[in-house]
């Protein structure tokens, strides 16, 4: 994976700027930024796999859809995503397709803590751009 993220100042929400060399890494780094925003723990073991597939009209919609599903898995299903095993993003005509195998575990609230609850992944200020050999975007998490 080649990419990184950094937190930026944003009133009342969490905002991150993400950069990567390709779309797949942009999604992986974005998932890492989401996870690091909601939990402190790392080093999870006994990982399980889940396959997610999405189709959307833009790369931004696809990214918000994906991150929103990770958030739902945590808050609604008590399952935390710890990483990505496999990812493929393709554009067929006007539709973007994502197939991703994520790794994670049931989220045991006796063992782990949610440090902040994200209400929604927003489209606010999100615009995936290609500049100077990198894909860049900003993600705002509504808290």
Describe the overall structure.
- This protein is an alpha+beta fold and 143 residues long.
- The chain has a single domain (3-142), classed as Archease, Possible Chaperone, Chain: A, domain 1.
- Helices cover 23% and strands 43% of the residues.
- It is built from 2 helices and 8 strands; from the N terminus they run E-E-H-E-H-E-E-E-E-E.
- The protein has helices at 23-38, 59-75, and strands spanning 3-8, 14-20, 48-56, 79-92, 95-106, 120-121, 129-131, 134-142.
- The strands form 2 sheets. Strands 1, 2, 6, 7 and 8 form a 5-stranded antiparallel sheet that branches. Strands 3-5-4 form a 3-stranded antiparallel sheet, covered by helices on one side.
- Strand 7 (129-131) and strand 8 form a beta hairpin.
- Helix 1 runs parallel beside helix 2.
- The protein is globular, with a radius of gyration of 15 Å.
Q: According to CATH, what is the class? A: Alpha Beta
Give the overall silhouette: globular
Q: What is the CATH topology descriptor?
A: Archease, Possible Chaperone, Chain: A, domain 1
Rg, alpha carbons:
15 Å
Compute the number of strand runs: 8
* Main sheet record: 5 strands, antiparallel
Total count of domains? 1
Structural classification: alpha+beta
Order of helices and strands: EEHEHEEEEE
The CATH superfamily name is Archease domain
